[in-house]
Automatic annotation (TrEMBL):
Species annotation: Azomonas agilis
Keyword DNA-binding: no
Name of encoding gene: dusA
EC assignment: 1.3.1.91
DUS-like FMN-binding domain sequence ranges: 19-314
Active-site feature positions: C104
Entry function: Catalyzes the synthesis of 5,6-dihydrouridine (D), a modified base found in the D-loop of most tRNAs, via the reduction of the C5-C6 double bond in target uridines. Specifically modifies U20 and U20a in tRNAs.
UniProt protein name: tRNA-dihydrouridine(20/20a) synthase
Pfam family name, one: Dus
Keywords, in A-Z order: Flavoprotein, FMN, NADP, Nucleotide-binding, Oxidoreductase, RNA-binding, tRNA processing, tRNA-binding
Site residues by UniProt (Interacts with tRNA): N101, K187, R190, R303, R306
Cofactor: FMN
Catalysed reactions, as listed in the record: 5,6-dihydrouridine(20a) in tRNA + NAD(+) = uridine(20a) in tRNA + NADH + H(+); 5,6-dihydrouridine(20a) in tRNA + NADP(+) = uridine(20a) in tRNA + NADPH + H(+); 5,6-dihydrouridine(20) in tRNA + NADP(+) = uridine(20) in tRNA + NADPH + H(+); 5,6-dihydrouridine(20) in tRNA + NAD(+) = uridine(20) in tRNA + NADH + H(+)
């Protein structure tokens, strides 16, 4: 590569369609599979805490396949200096964006001042954003709720976003419900507080120059299309994981691609060499197949497909042969 080439900054990330960070779900194997289905979706890692990176095994947490790009690293933390160090590690590992988690309501993370509880500390969040922006050239973004219990006024949301904006944040991923920090489990906090797209919309109106990505409860690409009339992008979590074949239509339907839509069978065939390499490296095939169960639903053989890859896979000495049986079920689909 010529020097002139290497000094060009990479094109800005396209956030029209993002796959949400999800602990235990969007690990590197799921992301590799998701990338086979969509070339354009922006993928996020699971949340990685600053503690895990600074005191654990960073290689384990940052490891990814080059094919997963474009890829964003989500960090959990609230210490500006630690976040700056971790952002550097992320940038050095090739991530194109660092996203700070201010939306996770779990008790465990609250004790460490991570996640949604940060919404009560806008100045701290702004300091974190600034420290990371000063440390790296890659984009720094924020994922947050529209409020938390006791701090759910629109004016407080405006203050939170405004302070982060002043610290240099341009992209906000808005999970359009509040988080209730006591009494609800993280799972309940993804369903019980009502969705308020109107508030996210108001935010976009009041901050027209910011990139606002809508998250929460979006199920279909038709819904995405509707929201894209108002928002700069959409982020899907559960729908993308539970029904991953939805990702196959993203590039054409939302991102203007003219490439043909990959079939289920083609996607699984393309995953086979990756699965084989993982096995050869001493991994278990289940690490990968647990993420692809949703590929088969609503047609004959779908149950058998899931049985093979979620139950039988644990019992066989020849997991690849079983993978091939599952592949056969997808022939013509
Ligand atoms: C299993 C699971 C794990 C999650 N882990 C994270 C996480 O690590 N970081 C984060 O910001 N949000 C996390 N979330 C929340 C999602 O990113 C997303 O905001 C939420 O599910 C709402 O979007 P959806 O309705 O499209 O699923 C998680 C959600 C699920 C279902």
């Amino acid at each position: 590569m010529s020097t002139a080439h290497s000094t060009l900054s990479p094109s800005p990330l396209n956030r029209t369609f993002c796959v949400a960070p999800m602990m235990d779900w969007t690990d590197r194997h799921f992301r590799y599979f998701a990338r086979l289905l969509s070339q354009r979706a922006l993928l996020y890692t699971e949340m990685v805490t600053t503690g895990a990176l600074l005191h654990g095994d960073p290689q384990r947490f940052l490891q990814h396949h080059p094919l997963e790009h474009p890829l964003a690293l989500q960090l959990g933390g609230s210490d500006p200096a630690e976040l700056a160090l971790c952002a550097r590690m992320g940038a050095a590992a090739g991530y194109r964006e660092v996203n700070l988690n201010a939306g996770c309501p779990s008790d465990r993370v609250q004790q460490n001042m991570i996640g949604a509880c940060l919404m009560a500390h806008p100045q701290r969040v702004a300091d974190c954003i600034k420290a990371m922006r000063d440390a790296v050239d890659i984009e720094i973004t924020l994922k947050h709720r529209i409020g938390i219990n006791g701090r759910d006024q629109y004016s407080e949301l405006v203050d939170f976003v405004g302070q982060a904006q002043e610290a240099g944040c341009r992209t906000f991923i808005v999970h359009a419900r509040i988080a209730i920090l006591e009494g609800l489990s993280p799972k309940e906090n993804r369903d019980i507080p009502p969705l308020r797209y109107d508030i996210a919309q108001q935010l976009k109106q009041d901050f027209p120059d910011l990139e606002i990505i809508l998250n929460g409860g979006i199920e279909t690409l038709a819904d995405c299309q509707t929201h894209l009339a108002t928002f700069d992008g959409v982020m899907l979590g559960r729908a993308a994981y539970n029904n991953p074949y939805l990702l196959a239509f993203v590039d054409q339907h939302l991102c203007g691609s003219t490439a043909p839509i990959i079939s289920r069978h083609q996607a699984l065939s393309a995953l086979r060499p990756y699965a084989e390499a993982h096995l050869k490296a001493g991994g278990s095939l289940h690490h990968i197949t647990r993420h692809i169960l949703g590929l088969a639903q609503g047609f004959s053989g779908a149950r058998r497909f899931r049985q093979l890859l979620s139950v039988d896979i644990h019992k066989t000495p020849q997991p690849l042969a079983l993978f091939d049986q599952a592949l056969k079920i997808l022939e013509g689909r």
